[in-house]
C-alpha cells in the first residue's frame, strides 16, 4: 500500500454526535422497502446478484442534444415561436402558384435566421459535450481481481468497485468512505461544486473499516436509500462480518467534491452516473422571462391581427373588382386583362373563390409586417450587453478578484424596471466577517467603545439615550480603540481593562468569567491548525461567529490548541494562582447547531471527573431552558442583550450545567437508539433526544459580535431610494438589531415614522403562558389584523393631506411571528397594501421559507418587477422566486451565486448594475423593439398601398430579393448597434440623477401608448413614402429621351426611400453616436446600393426587374435622387415635429437632464460653479422637484 498513514489528530467524532459501536439488533425496517431498495455488493461487482440489479454506469452527459436528436429537437425549439411557424408555412406555400414571389427569396432569410440560431445552440452544446468527455475520461485507481490498484476511466466504474482517490482529486462517483491516510479514517472534503461552500467538511469512516489492511479482503453488502437529490442526508446500513452498522452522511463522499488535506482515501462506489446526488440535483433553474419579452409576444399577435385584417380587406375589394370585370350583359370592363381567358385566381364567374385565393396570397405578401430577424437580433444584443456588464471595471472587486457576472442574458432589461428590492442582511448588507466586541458576564457588561451602528445612531435625533452605566459612557469608536491597541487580531476587536491581559482574575466574579470563556473555548467544532514555523494557531471553523468565539477565548487566556478523537486541550489561566495550566477535557458528545434548534451543545468530562453540558444559542430558545436556580442576573443579561441588539450586534446566550452520571447513562442509551434508527424521522428523534438533556441550564452571560456594514451600503441604499426603488430587508436578526442596522445603512431615515407590527403584547404573552395554542393563534391573528389596519389609517392620514409638498414617509417593521399571520390568505392583501405604502420594509426573524413567500407575495400582488439579493444558501428560494435574483459572492460560499441571474461581489455594486446598466439596457431594448415594429410597418404598408393602387392584384411593389433582404441585411445592423451602444446620458449622470431610473420603473418607453405611437409613425411614413413617390413620379418623363417611370424604377425609388427613411429615423433616434453606429447606419444604406449594382448585373432571367436598373436608369437621373430626398425628409418630418413638441412641452426625465447639460455655459463663473456643484437651472430644478414629489406621493403601483 503506497503512502505512509498519517498519525496524530483523530477527529472522527468532530462533526457528528459521536461514533459508537451499534449492535446488530437495531431497527432497519425501512431498508428494503420503497425508497430504500438499493443493494451494493462491495468489492464484488461481478457477482450474479449484482449483475442482475443492472445499475446505471458512471457515464455522464449534461448536453441538451445528441448527434441523433440535434436537428429535430433544435428545429422544435425554433418553431415554438409563432413567427417562425408563420414563415415556415409561407415558405411551403411559396412553391404554389399563389405565391407573390419566388420560393428561394422567402426560404433564404428563414434558413439564415433558423440556421444561425441552430449553430449558436450547437456550439454551446458542443462546449458542454467537451466538458463531459473530459470528465468521463478522467483516471482513477480501482482495486482489481489481482489484488492491486490499477487505473481506469471514470466512465468505466461500476457500483461496488473499490477506488483510491488522491489529494486534490475529485471523487468520480458517490463513495462510501472506508479508510484514509489518517489512522482513524478521517478526510477533509471541499464541496464548492455541490453547495458553493468554501469551508472544508470533515468526513470519517466507520471504525470497523478504517483498518487499511482489511481493504484487500473486504467483502460487505450495503443496503441503502435509492438515488435522490438530498445532499445532506443518507440512510443505509453496512452488513459486514455478520453485523450491521448504520451509515450516515458522514461516511459519504459525493461526486464532484474534492479531497483536501488528505493524502488518499479508499471508498466503495454506491451511486454512479446520473444516480449520483450531484446529477440528481442537476435540474434547470426556474425559467424567467422579462416583462418586455412577454409583452413583445402580445405585439406579435397584434401584428398578426393587422396582417389578417388588411389581407381580408384587400381580398374583399379584390373580389368586388373581379366580379365587375364581367358585367351582366357580358361586356368586359377591364378588357385588357382578358378576364374571359384567365385562371381561377382572377375568374369573374367565381369571384368569391378568387377572393379566397387572394386572401392566401395577401397573407404571404404582407408577411413582412412580422419581423423575422427580431428574435435573433435581440439575442445578439442581450449577449453583447452581458459582456459589457461582465467587463465593467467599476463593478470589479479587487480584494476578492471577483467581477460582476451576468449569468443569464434574458433579464438585462428587467434590471432597469426594478420596483422593489428584497435583501438579506448578513453577508449582503454586512461583511459576514465577525468580530468579538462585547460580552455580558454575571450581569456585568464588558467591552469599551461604540460600534458603527451606534455612531450612526448618534446622528438620528432622539435615538441616543444616556448610558445607564458609566463604564460604557465613552465616545471612542471601537475602530479607534482597536487602532490604539498594540496588536490587531482578526476576529477580535475587544477592549476592557478589567478583563484583558489576565486582569479578569481580580474581578469579584472571576469564577463565572472563567466558566464563561471555557464554554467559548470548548463548545464548538473548530479545528486548530498550528503553523510549523511560527507555532501560531489558526482555526478552521464552520462559521465566522464560531471562529470569533474561539479567538476571543484565546486572547483572554483560554487557548484551544489541540483536538483529538476524544479530547479537547486548553491552555488556561488558573483564576486562583494566575498561572497558565494545561487542561484536557474528554469530549463525549457534540449536539450540533441547526436552524431549527438554534443552539449547540457539547457534553464533556473535566479533569475533576465532572460531567458538564456546555451550551450556547439564541436568546429566544435559551432563556426558556434555564433552571429556576440558574436565572441569576437574567434581568441584567436581557437588558444587555437588548442594548447590544440596538447597537447592531449579534448575540448568543452562554449557559452550562452539571450532569448526573445516572441521568447521562439513561439519556445516552435513548440518544444512541435514536441515532441508530434507519428511518425518515431519524433526525427528528435525534433532536428530541438532544432536547431532553438541554434543560435546567445555568446562565453565565451573553456574547456580542459585530458584523460590519459593507463599504458603500448607506450611499447605495440612499441612491436607490432617490430612484424611487422600494427596499425590503428580510433578516433573521432580532427586531432591535434590524431596526438599528436600518438606520445605519440609511434604510430608515430621520423623520421617517416607524410602524411596528409585533406580537409582544401582554395579552398574547399571557395566553402563551397558559399553553392554549388555539387561543394564542386566534388572539395573534386578531392582534395582527388590528395593527395592520391601524398602520393603514396612519398612511391614509399622511397621504390625504395633499397640501403638504413633503409628505410624511413610513417604515414598516414586522417580526417573524407576526409575519406568519400576516402571510395568511385572509391578511396577506392588507399586509401587502400597507407595505407598499411604506418607503422601507424590514421583516425580522424571517425563515428562508418566509423570505420566499414574501417575495412571491410582492411579485404577484404588485405585478411590478422584484429583485432579490442574498449571499447564502438560505436565500436561494428568495432569489429563484423573484423576477431577478442577484447573488453576492461572500463568506457564506457560492450557493446563492449559483442560483442567481446576476452575481456581484459587494452590495454597493447594485447601484451601478441598476441605475446604469439597468437603465441603459431597458432603454436600448425598448427602443429597439419599437423601432423593429416601426420599420416593418413602414415597409409592409407600402406593399398594401401599392396593391390598393394596382386594384388589389396581389402584385408586390418590389423585386423578390429586395423584400427578402430588407430585414436581414439593410436594416438589421443599425438596430443591433442601438441595442448595444446607445446611451441617453452618461454613466456619471445616471448616478447623479437617479430619478432617470423611473423611466423603466414606470415603463414609459415600452407602454402601449409608446408602442402604438411607433406603429402609427410607421403607417404614416409608409403613406408619405408611397403616395408622395407615386404623385411625384407617375407619368413623368425622367430621362432625356422622354421615357417615363416604369414599374422597376418606381420600385427601386420607393424601396430606396424606405431604406433611407428607416435608417435616418434610427440616426435621429440615437442619443450617443459611436463610429460603429455611423458605420452600420450609413453602411447599410451603402450596402443596398452595392447590392443593387451586383444583383442588377446578373442576367435578366435571375435579376428580373433589377437588371441594370441603378446603373442605366435610376442612377443617372437627378429626378430620382431629388424625389428620394423629398420623400425621405417628408417621411421624417412627423416624428421630428413630435419630438420637438415633446421636448419643449412634455419632456421625459432624460430630456430634462440633456437640456440642462446643453444649456450650461462654462464661460461664465456662475454657471461654471453651478456645473461643478451639480446645481440645475431654476426651471429644471422646479420640474424635478415636482417629479420627485409625485413619486413620493404614489399610493399604489398602478
UniProtKB/TrEMBL annotation:
Could you tell me which residue ranges the P-type ATPase C-terminal domain spans? Answer: 897-1147
Q: What is this protein called?
A: Phospholipid-transporting ATPase
Keywords, ordered alphabetically: ATP-binding, Magnesium, Membrane, Metal-binding, Nucleotide-binding, Translocase, Transmembrane, Transmembrane helix
EC no. given is 7.6.2.1
Q: Which GO terms describe its cellular component?
A: plasma membrane
**Positions with a binding annotation for Mg(2+):** 424, 426, 871, 875
Report the catalytic activity. Answer: ATP + H2O + phospholipidSide 1 = ADP + phosphate + phospholipidSide 2
The UniProt similarity line reads: Belongs to the cation transport ATPase (P-type) (TC 3.A.3) family. Type IV subfamily.
> One Pfam family name from the record?
Cation_ATPase
A GO term, aspect molecular function: ATP binding
Where does this protein hold ATP?
424-426, 546, 593, 616, 650, 731-733, 845, 851, 874-875
The coenzyme or cofactor needed here is: Mg(2+)
What species is this protein from? Eutrema salsugineum
Q: Describe the task this protein carries out.
A: Involved in transport of phospholipids.
Amino acid at each position: 500500500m503506497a503512502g505512509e498513514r498519517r498519525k496524530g489528530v483523530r477527529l472522527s467524532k468532530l462533526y457528528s454526535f459521536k461514533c459508537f459501536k451499534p449492535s446488530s439488533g437495531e431497527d432497519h425496517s425501512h431498508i428494503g422497502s420503497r425508497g430504500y431498495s438499493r443493494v451494493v455488493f462491495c468489492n464484488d461487482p461481478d457477482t450474479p446478484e449484482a449483475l442482475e440489479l443492472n445499475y446505471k454506469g458512471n457515464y455522464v452527459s449534461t448536453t441538451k442534444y445528441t448527434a441523433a436528436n440535434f436537428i429535430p429537437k433544435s428545429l422544435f425549439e425554433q418553431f415554438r415561436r409563432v413567427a417562425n411557424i408563420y414563415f415556415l408555412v409561407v415558405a411551403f406555400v411559396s412553391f404554389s402558384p399563389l405565391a407573390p414571389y419566388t420560393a428561394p427569396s422567402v426560404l433564404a432569410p428563414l434558413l439564415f435566421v433558423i440556421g444561425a440560431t441552430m449553430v449558436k445552440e450547437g456550439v454551446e452544446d458542443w462546449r458542454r459535450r467537451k466538458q463531459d468527455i473530459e470528465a468521463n475520461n478522467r483516471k482513477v485507481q480501482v482495486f482489481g481481481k489481482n489484488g492491486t490498484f490499477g487505473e481506469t476511466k471514470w466512465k468505466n466504474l461500476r457500483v461496488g468497485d473499490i477506488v483510491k482517490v488522491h489529494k486534490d482529486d475529485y471523487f468520480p462517483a458517490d463513495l462510501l468512505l472506508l479508510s484514509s491516510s489518517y489512522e482513524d479514517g478521517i478526510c477533509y472534503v471541499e464541496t464548492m461544486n455541490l453547495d458553493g461552500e468554501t469551508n472544508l467538511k470533515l468526513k470519517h469512516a466507520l471504525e470497523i473499516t478504517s483498518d487499511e489492511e482489511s481493504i484487500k479482503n473486504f467483502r460487505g453488502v450495503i443496503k441503502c436509500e435509492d438515488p435522490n437529490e438530498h445532499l445532506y442526508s443518507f440512510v443505509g446500513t453496512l452488513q459486514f462480518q455478520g453485523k450491521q452498522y448504520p451509515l450516515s452522511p458522514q461516511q459519504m463522499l459525493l461526486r464532484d467534491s474534492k479531497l483536501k488535506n488528505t493524502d488518499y482515501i479508499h471508498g466503495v462506489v454506491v451511486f454512479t452516473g446520473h444516480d449520483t446526488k450531484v446529477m440528481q440535483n442537476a435540474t434547470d433553474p426556474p425559467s424567467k422571462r422579462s416583462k418586455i419579452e412577454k409583452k413583445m409576444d402580445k405585439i406579435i399577435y397584434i401584428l398578426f391581427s393587422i396582417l389578417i385584417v388588411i389581407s381580408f380587406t384587400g381580398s374583399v375589394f379584390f373580389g368586388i373588382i373581379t366580379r365587375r370585370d364581367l358585367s351582366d350583359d357580358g361586356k368586359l370592363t377591364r378588357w385588357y386583362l382578358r378576364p374571359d381567358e384567365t385562371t381561377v385566381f382572377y375568374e369573374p364567374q367565381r369571384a368569391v373563390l378568387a377572393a379566397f385565393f387572394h386572401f392566401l396570397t395577401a397573407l404571404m405578401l404582407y408577411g413582412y409586417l412580422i419581423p423575422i430577424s427580431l428574435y435573433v437580433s435581440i439575442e445578439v444584443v442581450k449577449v453583447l450587453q452581458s459582456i459589457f456588464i461582465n467587463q465593467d471595471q467599476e463593478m470589479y472587486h479587487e480584494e476578492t478578484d471577483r467581477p460582476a457576472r451576468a449569468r443569464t442574458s434574458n433579464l438585462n432589461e428587467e434590471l432597469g424596471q426594478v420596483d422593489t428590492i428584497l435583501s438579506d442582511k448578513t453577508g449582503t448588507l454586512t461583511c459576514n466577517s465577525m468580530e468579538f466586541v462585547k460580552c455580558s458576564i454575571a450581569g456585568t457588561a464588558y467591552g469599551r467603545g461604540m460600534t458603527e451602528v451606534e455612531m450612526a445612531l448618534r446622528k438620528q435625533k432622539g435615538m441616543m439615550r444616556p448610558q445607564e452605566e458609566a463604564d460604557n459612557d465613552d465616545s471612542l469608536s471601537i475602530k479607534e480603540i482597536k487602532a490604539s491597541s498594540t496588536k490587531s487580531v482578526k476576529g477580535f476587536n475587544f477592549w476592557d481593562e478589567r478583563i484583558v491581559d489576565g486582569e479578569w482574575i481580580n474581578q469579584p466574579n472571576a469564577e463565572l468569567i472563567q466558566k464563561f470563556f471555557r464554554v467559548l473555548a470548548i463548545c464548538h467544532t473548530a479545528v486548530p491548525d498550528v503553523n510549523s514555523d511560527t507555532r501560531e494557531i489558526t482555526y478552521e471553523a464552520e462559521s465566522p461567529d464560531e471562529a470569533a468565539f474561539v479567538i476571543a477565548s484565546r486572547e483572554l487566556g483560554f487557548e484551544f490548541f489541540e483536538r483529538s478523537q476524544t479530547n479537547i486541550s486548553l491552555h488556561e489561566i488558573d483564576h486562583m494562582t494566575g498561572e497558565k495550566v494545561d487542561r484536557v477535557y474528554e469530549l463525549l458528545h457534540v449536539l450540533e447547531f441547526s436552524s431549527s434548534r438554534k443552539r449547540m451543545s457539547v457534553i464533556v468530562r473535566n479533569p475533576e471527573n465532572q460531567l458538564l453540558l456546555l451550551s450556547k444559542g439564541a436568546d429566544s430558545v435559551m432563556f426558556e431552558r434555564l433552571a429556576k436556580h440558574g436565572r441569576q442576573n437574567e434581568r441584567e443579561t436581557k437588558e444587555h442583550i437588548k442594548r447590544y441588539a440596538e447597537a447592531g450586534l449579534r448575540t448568543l446566550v452562554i449557559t452550562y450545567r452539571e450532569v448526573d452520571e445516572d441521568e447521562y447513562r439513561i439519556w445516552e442509551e435513548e440518544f444512541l437508539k435514536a441515532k441508530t434508527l434507519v428511518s425518515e424521522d431519524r433526525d427528528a428523534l435525534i433532536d428530541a433526544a438532544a432536547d431532553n438533556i438541554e434543560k435546567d441550564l445555568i446562565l453565565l452571560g451573553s456574547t456580542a459580535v459585530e458584523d460590519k456594514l459593507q463599504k458603500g451600503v448607506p450611499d447605495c441604499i440612499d441612491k436607490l431610494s432617490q430612484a424611487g426603488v422600494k427596499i425590503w430587508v428580510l433578516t433573521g436578526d432580532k427586531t432591535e438589531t434590524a431596526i438599528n442596522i436600518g438606520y445605519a445603512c440609511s434604510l430608515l431615515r430621520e423623520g421617517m415614522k416607524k410602524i411596528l407590527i409585533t406580537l409582544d403584547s401582554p395579552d398574547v404573552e399571557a395566553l402563551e403562558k397558559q399553553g392554549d395554542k388555539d387561543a394564542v393563534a386566534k388572539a395573534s391573528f386578531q392582534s395582527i389584523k388590528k395593527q395592520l389596519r391601524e398602520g393603514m389609517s396612519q398612511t391614509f392620514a399622511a397621504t390625504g393631506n395633499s397640501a403638504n409638498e413633503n409628505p410624511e414617509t413610513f417604515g414598516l417593521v414586522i417580526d417573524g411571528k407576526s409575519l406568519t399571520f400576516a402571510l395568511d390568505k385572509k391578511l396577506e392583501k392588507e399586509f401587502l397594501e400597507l407595505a407598499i405604502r411604506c418607503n422601507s420594509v424590514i421583516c425580522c426573524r424571517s425563515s428562508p421559507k418566509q423570505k420566499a413567500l414574501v417575495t412571491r407575495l410582492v411579485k404577484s400582488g404588485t405585478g411590478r418587477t422584484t429583485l432579490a439579493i442574498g449571499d447564502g444558501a438560505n436565500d436561494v428560494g428568495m432569489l429563484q422566486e423573484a423576477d431577478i435574483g442577484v447573488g453576492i459572492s461572500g463568506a457564506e460560499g457560492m450557493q446563492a451565486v449559483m442560483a442567481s441571474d446576476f452575481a456581484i461581489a459587494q452590495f454597493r455594486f447594485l447601484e451601478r448594475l441598476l441605475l446604469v446598466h439597468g437603465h441603459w439596457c431597458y432603454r436600448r431594448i425598448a427602443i429597439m423593439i419599437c423601432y423593429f415594429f416601426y420599420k416593418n410597418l413602414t415597409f409592409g404598408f407600402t406593399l398594401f398601398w401599392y396593391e390598393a393602387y394596382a386594384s388589389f392584384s396581389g402584385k408586390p411593389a418590389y423585386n423578390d430579393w429586395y423584400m427578402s433582404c430588407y430585414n436581414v441585411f439593410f436594416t438589421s445592423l443599425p438596430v443591433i448597434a442601438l441595442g448595444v451602444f446607445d446611451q441617453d446620458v452618461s454613466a456619471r449622470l445616471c448616478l447623479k440623477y437617479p430619478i432617470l431610473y423611473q423611466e423603466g420603473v414606470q415603463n414609459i418607453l415600452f407602454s402601449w401608448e409608446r408602442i402604438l405611437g411607433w406603429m402609427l409613425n410607421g403607417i404614416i411614413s409608409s403613406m408619405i413614402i408611397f403616395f408622395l413617390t407615386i404623385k411625384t413620379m407617375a407619368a413623368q418623363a425622367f430621362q432625356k429621351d422622354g421615357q417615363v417611370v416604369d414599374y422597376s424604377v418606381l420600385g427601386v425609388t420607393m424601396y430606396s426611400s424606405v431604406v433611407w427613411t428607416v435608417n435616418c429615423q434610427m440616426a435621429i433616434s440615437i442619443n450617443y453616436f459611436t463610429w460603429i453606429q455611423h458605420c452600420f447606419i450609413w453602411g447599410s444604406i451603402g450596402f443596398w446600393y452595392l447590392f443593387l449594382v451586383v444583383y442588377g448585373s446578373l442576367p435578366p432571367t435571375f435579376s428580373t426587374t433589377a437588371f441594370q436598373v441603378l446603373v442605366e436608369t435610376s442612377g443617372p437621373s437627378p429626378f430620382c435622387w431629388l424625389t428620394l430626398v423629398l420623400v425621405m425628409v417628408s417621411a421624417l418630418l412627423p416624428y421630428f415635429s413630435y419630438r420637438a413638441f415633446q421636448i419643449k412641452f412634455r419632456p421625459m426625465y432624460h430630456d430634462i437632464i440633456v437640456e440642462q447639460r446643453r444649456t450650461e455655459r462654462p464661460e461664465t463663473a456662475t454657471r461654471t460653479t453651478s456645473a461643478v456643484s451639480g446645481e440645475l437651472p431654476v426651471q429644471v430644478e422646479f420640474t424635478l422637484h415636482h417629479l420627485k414629489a409625485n413619486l413620493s406621493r404614489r399610493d399604489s403601483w398602478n
